[in-house]
């Protein structure tokens, strides 16, 4: 069997679902809450590291829950609630 993982990065959490690629049946789901920071009045931030860490956690959770090997995952599809700019250092 082959599977697809669908991931949604939202305002409050990262959610993932594992689907059977042949019939679309949902095999498992996982959610990781995201922390939101308010550094100044009127400013709202999240850490890209938290998105990345949460992606790894939800992926691991549903693969373990379904008791499948990672190699059985044919693709990971990712969606977010908005376009986001992440500033990176040049190094």
* Rg (C-alpha, Å): 15 Å
Order of helices and strands: EEEHE
Number of H/I helices: 1
**Cα shape:** elongated
Structural class of the helix and strand makeup?
A: alpha+beta
Helix content: 10-25%
Low-confidence stretches: none
Biggest pleated sheet: 4 strands, mixed
Strand order, main sheet: write it out: 3-2-1-4
Distance between the ends: 41 Å
Strand content: 25-35%
Strand segment tally: 4
Q: Can you give the mean pLDDT?
A: 91
Report on this structure.
- The chain is α+β, with helices and mostly antiparallel strands.
- The chain is built from 1 helix and 4 strands, in the order E-E-E-H-E.
- It has one helix at 48-66; strands at 3-9, 13-20, 26-33, 73-80.
- It has a 4-stranded mixed sheet, with helices on one face.
- A hairpin with a 5-residue loop joins strand 2 and strand 3 (26-33).
- 12% of the residues are buried.
- The mean pLDDT is 91.
